[in-house]
């Protein structure tokens, strides 16, 4: 009798705790965000992109997505993840010297990319995890770092050669996990058409061909997603970090022919944006040489970058920011590049703008969204995931209309 009573009690307790777990487990919503690096806003007008065109019909297409300045990969992916301008999250370029930490940061150095001390702000995956919403990332900038001793539930070190198919398999695997383990936010990344855009320029036929291949890849991706039982609960965002500008071989500045490199302590950056730290007493000399050289070469002192760019106030941007007008290159004479395309220019240049498409249960159908800032994606993600987010530079008011 005593034995039966104990068993019943045990079953009762198990049933109750199962119920508690079930109550805590959220079964939706799901949000899958893909960034295709360097996908300029108007590539779909230049190439044949039936998948993106159909996304527009069943969901939202933005006129364009405005990146933060400088329109480089790392600052912008981390702005999307944090809702902050690069000055406010600290990833001010792809490579920089962090005077505050007395350490160099480089996108090609795993040790620094995974070092959470470089990253400010509250990335969306950490905010979600704190609120019991599991997240997974595949190569999103910052997601392999322990930021405030936290990480997404699933992440991995950057591996550029991971096949396109394996990337889809990862997303599918995550969305097929048992409830309780299944991530509700997935942020994944692919490095094209940025690479081809650098090699052949945004006007190159090779670039537009790859854009078409990526569109076919998206068709494969959605085919796999449709097989998932929870497909109807998933919202999708297809976006990018910046655009691409065709370069002219005759529009080139060589920094070392304008200023004396002996006056410099640090020169961070790559075509067409650099942050310079000058030796003591040399600031006005170097600034004058740069700003008087050519009308297509722009130099700003620290704290004097025009407000619209929200840049040049972080200690990591050093003493002077130099950038050229779009289409112009800035190199060192010993390191002249031969790219046909680049990015990094002012974000007011439309060629720096990226794509933004979204579809799923939360998004309006066939809705045309005006150009908006990529920092607004953060509050948008927070709203879709139904989580509380901290106050950031981005604002939900700018994007709310695309939601049902
Ligand atoms: P860029 O065009 O110079 O601004 O940077 C683009 C490059 O950034 C890509 O070709 C990738 O190789 C690299 N990249 C993007 N995401 C990551 C990451 N999470 N970790 C390391 N490298 C990355
Ligand atoms: Zn990029
Ligand atoms: Zn690039």
Q: How would you characterize the overall build of this protein?
A:
31% of the residues lie in helices and 19% in strands. With 404 residues, the protein is of the alpha/beta class. A hairpin with a 2-residue loop joins strand 11 (264-270) and strand 12. It is globular and about 65 Å long. The structure holds adenosine monophosphate (AMP) and zinc ion (2 copies). Adenosine monophosphate binds at residues 37, 72-73, 94, 107, 113, 139, 141, 158, 160, 189, 191, 194-195.
How would you concisely characterize the structure shown here?
This protein has helices at residues 2-24, 43-46, 50-58, 73-82, 86-89, 110-113, 124-130, 164-175, 194-200, 205-226, 255-258, 283-291, 377-385; strands at residues 30-36, 60-62, 65-66, 95-98, 103-106, 135-138, 185-190, 234-239, 245-246, 252-254, 264-270, 273-278, 297-301, 320-324, 329-331, 341-342, 356-359, 367-369, 372-373. The protein is an alpha/beta fold and 404 residues long. Strands 6-7-1-8-17-2-18 form a seven-stranded mixed beta sheet, with helices on both faces. A four-stranded antiparallel beta sheet has the order 11-12-14-13, covered by helices on one side. A two-stranded parallel ribbon has the order 3-19.
The domain tally reads 2
**CATH superfamily grouping of the largest domain:** Alkaline Phosphatase, subunit A
Give the % helix. 25-40%
Distinct small molecules? adenosine monophosphate, zinc ion
- Spatial strand sequence of the major β-sheet: 6-7-1-8-17-2-18
**Which regions are unreliable across 5 or more consecutive residues at pLDDT < 50?**
1-23
Largest sheet: 7 strands, mixed
Q: Which secondary-structure class do the elements indicate? A: alpha/beta
Number of strands: 19
* CATH top-level class of the largest domain: Alpha Beta
Sheet-strand content, in percent, reads 15-25%
Query: Can you tell me the CATH architecture of the largest domain?
Result: 3-Layer(aba) Sandwich
């Amino acid at each position: 009798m005593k034995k039966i009573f104990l068993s019943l009690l045990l079953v009762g307790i198990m049933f109750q705790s199962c119920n508690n777990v079930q109550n805590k487990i959220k079964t939706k919503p799901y949000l899958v965000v893909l960034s295709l690096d360097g996908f300029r806003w108007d590539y779909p007008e230049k190439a044949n992109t039936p998948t993106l065109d159909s996304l527009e019909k069943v969901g939202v297409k933005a006129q364009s997505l405005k990146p933060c300045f400088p329109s480089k990969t790392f600052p912008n992916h981390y702005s999307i993840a944090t809702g902050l301008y690069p000055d406010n999250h600290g990833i001010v370029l792809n490579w920089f010297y962090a005077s505050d930490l007395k350490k160099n940061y480089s996108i090609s150095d795993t040790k620094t990319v995974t070092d959470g001390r470089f990253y400010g702000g509250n990335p969306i995956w950490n905010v979600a995890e704190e609120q019991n919403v599991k997240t997974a990332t595949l190569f999103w900038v910052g997601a392999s770092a322990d930021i405030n001793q936290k990480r997404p539930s699933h992440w991995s070190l950057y591996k550029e050669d991971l096949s396109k198919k394996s990337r889809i398999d990862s997303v599918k695997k995550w969305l097929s996990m048992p409830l309780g383990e299944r991530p509700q936010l997935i942020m994944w990344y692919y490095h094209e058409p940025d690479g081809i855009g650098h090699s052949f320029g945004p006007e190159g036929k090779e670039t537009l061909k790859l854009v078409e291949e990526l569109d076919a890849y998206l068709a494969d991706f959605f085919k796999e997603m449709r097989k998932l039982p929870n497909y109807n609960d998933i919202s999708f965002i297809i976006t990018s970090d910046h655009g691409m500008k065709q370069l002219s071989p005759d529009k080139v500045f060589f920094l070392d022919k304008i200023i004396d490199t002996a006056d410099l302590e640090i020169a961070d950056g790559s075509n067409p944006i650099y942050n310079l730290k000058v030796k003591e007493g040399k600031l006005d000399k170097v600034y004058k040489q740069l700003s008087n050289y050519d009308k297509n070469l722009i130099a700003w002192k620290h704290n004097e970058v025009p407000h619209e760019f929200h840049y040049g106030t972080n200690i990591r941007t050093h003493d002077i920011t130099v950038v050229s007008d779009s289409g112009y290159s800035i190199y060192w004479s010993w390191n002249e590049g031969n790219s046909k395309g680049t990015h990094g220019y002012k974000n007011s240049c439309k060629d720096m703008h990226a794509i933004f498409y979204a579809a799923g249960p939360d998004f309006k159908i066939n809705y045309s969204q005006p150009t908006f800032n990529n920092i607004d994606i953060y509050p948008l993600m927070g709203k879709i995931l139904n989580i509380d987010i901290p106050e950031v530079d981005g604002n939900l008011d700018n994007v709310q209309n695309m939601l049902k």
